[in-house]
Amino acid sequence: MSTVCNLSSPKREVARRCVYRRAIFFAIMIYIALAGRLWADAGNVDGPSIYQPSTNDEIIFRISSSAIVSSGATVITPEQHLKAAKQALVLFRETANPRFLGDAERELAAIPNHKQSAPFYFYRASLRQSLHLFDEALADLNKISAMKADNLESRMMRFTISFVSGNYQAAEQACSSLKQYENSLYAASCVQQLQAVSGDADAAYQALKQAMAAVGVLADRQALIWASGTLADIAERAGRDDALALWQLALQLNRGDLYTRARLASLLLNQGDYQQVMSLTEDYLAVDALAVSRAIAQQYLGGNEALVRILRERFDEARWRGEILHKRAYAQFLLEIEQQPQLALLMAEKNWEHQREWPDAVILSHAKDAANAVQVR
Amino acid sequence: MMRLILIPVLVLIGAVFSNLSFAHKASDSFLYISSEQIRLDLAVQDMLRIDLIDVNGDGVVSWGELRATEPVFSALLAKHIVLSHGGERCGLDIVLRGMSDHSDGPYTSWSLTSDCLSRAAVNLDYSLLFNIDPQHRALLLSNLSGEKQLSVLSPSNQSLVLGEDISPLSTAGVFLWQGVVHLLVGYDHMLFLLALLLPATRRKNLGTQAESLRRVFTDVALVVTMFTLAHSFTLIAASLGWFSLPSQPVEIAIAISISLAAFMALMDVNARLQRGLAMGVGLIHGFGFAGVLSDLLAASPLKLLALASFNVGIELAQLALVIIVLPVLYRFSFLPLYQRRVFPLASILLIASGLYMAAQRI
Questions:
Q1: Which of B35, B98, B265, B303 has the fewest beta carbons closer than 10 A?
Q2: Which of A247, A279, A294 is the last residue of a domain?
Q3: Which residues contact A134 (CB under 8 A, 6 or more apart)?
Q4: Which of A120, A150, A180 delimits the end of a domain?
């Protein structure tokens, strides 16, 4: 067929064929370009480069107390397994090293069914909460309830999980059950935290502050630490100026708490105090949320390439593994560092499905705004 | 990161937070698999959990100490990483090659070679560290199937067949069907198509000789194919991350495109303008399809074939829709009632639907 392709041909049939022919040519070109790109990308399975240390004395790794996790080989009784699991959970809380969660799981798995007591279910719920398996953690807490072995800790965990996952009705029930305990600061904290999310953050702030003042120096230290963190969270939600000072106070009360440190760093970052973020996150690069805050602060101060490379590799490996535990931190990384608002929004939305704290709402809102503002790149 | 309640043990926690040289992440080993070898990268942190490496107890691990463990770890790797073919265990040569760096610190890099790797359908069983850390995973990257393939082995999934042929026919079938399904469940795309069909049923003068159904069909098929070509382009581009658009404006634009196409039908604009609209709006609809395809595509090793099949599936579904709906509309188009009442009403309904959806999406 040698018909000349003239779109202005008066013969409608000829013009139609020409359009078809051009469209098919266009489609074939797209697919050839696509095939070339995919072909060029295929086949390379090299990992990071391999190097040979120059001498046998070259130090490869420094063993810190938090780097080695006991294999628990000498543990024999269920009680000892439980104790080892608890120790692993404490170490995870201190260091945010997920290898300790593996240790806790191993120790708990070694306890036979007939020896699974209320503390067993509590520690397993704590493990599952740390792995963001909230439904499974609640199932363990239900087992504690069925054994009529609920205590302050299990009720607080139930409140925290329900609150964080946005199930405020269940959180309210758990909160009501806390009122039976003498230490009213936990109950006051959860009541006011629920009031704050229902829209009246200022009133919640005042009420919790009064409750803390009423207890005063008689307050149990752990309860005071918890209430301080809650007050700071409510103050931040209410947009109060003293939120920063309250997070600083909460950190003073519990220097080792990584959650409080991360919230303070995040607030400092939002306020543009990058130098403070740098000093607050120094030595905490192992913790995703703190490392991401530091990388963003460095972005403004200059010279964040090395940290960004590490974080990129860390998140790539997490994606490969298929388990991104810290979706909020990853969404922030995608938004602020990678400048990928669409992907950041996707991650923030995935995070929001399971986790609905104030910072989760903030990152979701920022990602939405950025995604809507972006133009075709 | 979330607040963790562990009140009894809080008492045990001091204010000490040790300096950390490396990032923390869950325990992973990395296996890079080609027809020449399996390269295993194993974290020094995990080796410390398996065996005593710091033999002199000075708190550091030296290269000499790691080299000294080579015989012990070679035997351990041979026990926990097993290749077999046709039910027979394959021989493995295991050598410590050196060190590599991953995001959580130094890893020892091992080379595992076997004649079996050049064969098809070799079974890999991996059980290293699972008894020590149930959260341990082996992350695999293999090119034995022709394309890069990522996999993960875990305590509940310890085996994998390497070099297994992935059926192109099955991939094509799955994605073709997905294309059909995604068009049928995407009611906004369907409404847009309907708006594209309407002008073909417009009769200005009922008394004059009408175009044959065949000719009307080819005209409509041309417009629909233009739409497919356009959305194929943006679908491919968005799926491969070449460029992207924010989802909210895309969704709003898709809704408005329905109103626009119906308005053009109502105002009886010429066919060339309509083809232009189909192409232009098709580009936007492609972004909408890409949103649903991304997860599916990530799981498929034959991405090119998958993308092509998905687009063909959409095109076939569109043409099927035209084949079913067009003869009915063509038949009715000769009725005065259709031209005076049904056609304008359908156009107005489509315009209203598009505007309503756009308002909902703002």
A1: B35
A2: A247
A3: A128, A161, A164, A165, A354
A4: A150
